[in-house]
Amino acid sequence: MAKRDFYEVLGVSRGASPDEIKKAYRGKAKELHPDRNADNPKAEAQFKEANEAYEVLKDAEKKAAYDRYGHAAFEGGMGASAGARGGQPGQGDFASAFSDVFDDLFGDIMGGRGGGRGGQRATRGADLRYNLRVTLEEAHRGLQKTVSVPTAVQCGTCRGSGAEGGSEPQNCPTCSGMGKVRAQQGFFTVERTCPTCSGAGQIIKNPCSECGGAGRVQKERSLSVNIPAGVETGTRIRLGGEGEAGLRGGPSGDLYIFLEVEDHPLFQREGEHLFCRVPVSIAAAALGGDIEVPTIDGGRSRVKIPAGSQSGKQMRLRGKGMPMLRGGGQGDMYIELAVETPVNLTSRQKEILREFDRLSENNNPETSGFFKKVKTFWDGMKN
């Protein structure tokens, strides 16, 4: 079976730059790596084919010979300079091609995070989450809040190094400070975390007695948090560097304050607006009048009820809602009327209501309109 054109194998043009060739090979190697294609018997052969193509095209002299003579440049006699340098492609050390992109691919293929060369001696601390509940009044005005956060802080005895009294960590003898070891398995190389130093690249022969070599200790810290006016449930506040201390002198993580605003017995919140449901008597709704309502800042406002108001009627108090979190003004407060039906009536009250009902035939337009529609509906069903 004739060999495929090397440019076609990698999916690049003949004028492709070395960076474009390397990028194309990286994509093919990731796509065809046997570890990702256990159920594809052709993947291994295609993977080797891509390695063979890259072994030639990454080398300027081999590439020039291939451009001039094609595959014949490596089949005895022709392209002597190329043959002298590398022999037939695919017969030499495959790792010389794959190692060019191994570090980039390793993290993706093996499931690691950023498999570059060298271990990370200092590890960044973890981010922390703290859930904080505030009242609606506190969310309205904003406040300073002190929170106690249990976390890992840098060890004061060894100053985060993990080593006892003046001694220093030493390079791991197994991985020579790389944090990883490589092993040849068949035609490809496998890289694993060093078992001696667990990827740190260093070992501590004389660990700190305070932190046991970790470079950090558990402690509860008190922090002052500024809660801006207008926060709502789900608002997140980031405190940079206030998270868990890093291992062996690494940078600290961040602390994230997640806010939850408690429900209020009088007000319901929708964004920057507040709603207050106010019960009124039938007489007050029918005759109209003034009522006094509370506001979120602890004040009072007088609201005029129009005569003949129905349940659900809303009246707006401008600027009496919640402040907008990033400036831009204040929301409004809406008063919603709930006309209340009286209960536990006396005989005299019942008598008065019956008389009132007889006299109010033309005073209930909504009721009259509804029953007219009902009559029209029934007449239509009969026809």
Automatic annotation (TrEMBL):
Coiled-coil portions: none
Cofactor: Zn(2+)
Annotated CR-type domain residues: 142-220
Chief place where the protein resides: cytoplasm
One Gene Ontology CC term in the entry: cytoplasm
Domain of life: Bacteria
Pfam families recorded: DnaJ (PF00226), DnaJ_C (PF01556), DnaJ_CXXCXGXG (PF00684)
Record-level GO BP terms: DNA replication; protein refolding; response to heat
Cofactor: binding comment: Binds 2 Zn(2+) ions per monomer.
InterPro entries associated with the record: DnaJ, DnaJ_C, DnaJ_domain, DnaJ_domain_CS, HSP40/DnaJ_pept-bd, HSP_DnaJ_Cys-rich_dom, HSP_DnaJ_Cys-rich_dom_sf, J_dom_sf
Positions bound to Zn(2+) 2: 172, 175, 194, 197
UniProt keyword terms in alphabetical order: Chaperone, Cytoplasm, DNA replication, Metal-binding, Repeat, Stress response, Transferase, Zinc, Zinc-finger
CDD domains to which the protein is assigned, alphabetical: DnaJ, DnaJ_C, DnaJ_zf
Zinc finger (CR-type): 142-220
Molecular function (Gene Ontology), one example: heat shock protein binding
Residues annotated as binding Zn(2+) 1: 155, 158, 208, 211
Domain notes: The J domain is necessary and sufficient to stimulate DnaK ATPase activity. Zinc center 1 plays an important role in the autonomous, DnaK-independent chaperone activity of DnaJ. Zinc center 2 is essential for interaction with DnaK and for DnaJ activity.
Family membership: Belongs to the DnaJ family.
Protein name: Chaperone protein DnaJ
Species lineage: Bacteria, Pseudomonadati, Pseudomonadota, Alphaproteobacteria, Rhodobacterales
